[in-house]
Amino acid sequence: MRIRQFIRQVTVAAVFAAALSPVYAAVRTHDVGTEWQDGSNPFGNWSVYYTDPQNNYQLVSLVGPTIRNSDPWTTPQPSYGDLPGIFKSKGTEQFAHDWIASDVIVHSDFSQPIALVWTVPFATRVTVTVGGWAARKLDRVSHGIFVIEDENDVNVFGIDPIGFGADRAHPSQYTFTTQNPLAAGSQLIFGIRSDTGAGDYHGLQFTVQVPEPSTLQLFGLAALCILLGLARKRGLGLTRLVTHKSVG
Fold first, then answer.
1. CA 162 to CA 104: how far, in whole Å?
2. 3-state secondary structure the chain
3. Is the overall model pTM greater than 0.90, yes or no?
4. Are 76 and 59 in contact (CB under 8 A)?
């Protein structure tokens, strides 16, 4: 029966190795331009809000999308908000601008800034890139503010201000990785506020990279749970489960 005992020991050791090793199959990238939707807010893990500078920049629900009509468009442009507002360009704009179709564009504002939010779906570390560029040359300065709020709405990280690049070819980029896992429900918030009375258009970049557990690791965890369940059912500790000898 030594062969059975050996197989049992090897199996349990393999389960531990698969379950406890920090192995990841891939890193999934969430990009606001790729995952943008005009049909609803929120869309996936993304959502857009107004913020209230008079109330510690509290997020305020932004109903949308609406149809932009403040600037000349060949075709109506769906947008969350107007001026201020945020939209994914369809390339129908009929005024001088520095962006192309599929870029995400925000019109900043001083009294009612726009915020773009990504909500963490499960406990994980993340690598975040935020930034952008001035999309029209009207000498109207804006800046970005990035904060991470945990599941209890407590700020745990922040960058203020975030500058914008001079043009689309030279956007600003700020990249960082969280040192500790963020809890599910935490929010990554990228707000854009005008520094002058009148806001202006800015192109935005916002990506979140999330490591995903490998299939092997998930299988190992499942197998480990089964083994522990069998051990409890038979009244065996894990050590006895490994070293128990059959009598035959």
1. 17
2. CHHHHHHHHHHHHHHHHHHHCCCEEEEEEEEHHHHCCCCCCCECCEEEEEEEHHHCCEEEECCCCEEECCCCECCCEEEEECCCEEEECCCCECCCCCCCCCCEEEECCCCCCEEEEEECCCCECCEEEEEEEECCCCCCCEEEEEEEECCCCCEEEEEEEECCECECCECEEEEEECCCCECCCCEEEEEEEECCCCCCEEEEEEEEEEEEECHHHHHHHHHHHHHHHHHHHCCCCHHHHHHCCCCC
3. no
4. no
Q: What are 138-164's pLDDT values in tens digits?
A: 888 899 999 999 988 888 888 889 999
Task: Write down how long the chain is.
Answer: 248
Name 248's Cβ contacts closer than 8 Å, sequence gap at least 6: 1
Q: How far is CA 103 from the centre of its chain?
A: 18
φ, ψ dihedrals at 166, nearest 5°: -70, -30
Burial label for 136, CB within 10 Å (0-12, 13-18, 19+), is: middle
The pLDDT tens digits of the residues spanning 182-211 come to 999 999 999 999 988 788 999 999 999 999
**Res 213: pLDDT:** 67
Q: 162, 78 in Cβ contact below 8 A?
A: no
Backbone angles phi, psi at 2, to 5 degrees: -65, -30
Q: Please state the φ and ψ torsions of residue 178, each to the nearest 5 degrees.
A: -70, 140
CB atoms within 10 A of CB 21: 12
Q: How many CB atoms lie within 10 A of CB 95?
A: 9
Residue 103 burial by CB count (10 A; 0-12/13-18/19+): exposed, middle or buried?
Answer: buried
